[in-house]
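User: Predict the structure for this protein chain, please.
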Amino acid sequence: MTIQIGDRLPAGELREFIEVESEGCSLGPNKFNVGDLAAGKKIAIFAVPGAFTPTCSEKHAPGYIQHAADFKALGVDEIWCIAVNDPFVMGAWGRELKATGLVRMLSDGNAEFTKALGLDADFSKGGLGTRSQRYSMLVEDGVVRQLNAEQAGKFEASDAETLLKQLG
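Assistant: Here is the predicted structure, written as structure tokens:
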């Protein structure tokens, strides 16, 4: 079953490659509990089928990076990019896109969280296995307030501008 507006995010873990060691976060991949990350925050989440892929790298992620200040101005605490890639790949992709400090590049390497959302997609015909559908959502204190899931192969509803309009 696919998550709906009004549903609470499912339990799960995501990983993030941490570039600078700090208290509670060691250098390299760190594991985070989704419930803990989302507690008390307004979060814009978008998911992509894969890091370094054309639409994801040229349009989807850059839109959220470009509009990070606009999201903050509308009360969004964090922006998350989720992909079924390992945290090393997500870290490298974030560095290339200059997302550091703007968008958290979160790995769902085994697609467990993506499957729990009901937003997984089978890309095995192209040799890519299980991936995420392309989507965006607004989450407040762990509850989905907006959800924009794309049809397969489309990029029409999950862009940054659409989610910004829904916030405004």
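Residues 13-167 form a domain with the Glutaredoxin fold (CATH 3.40.30.10).
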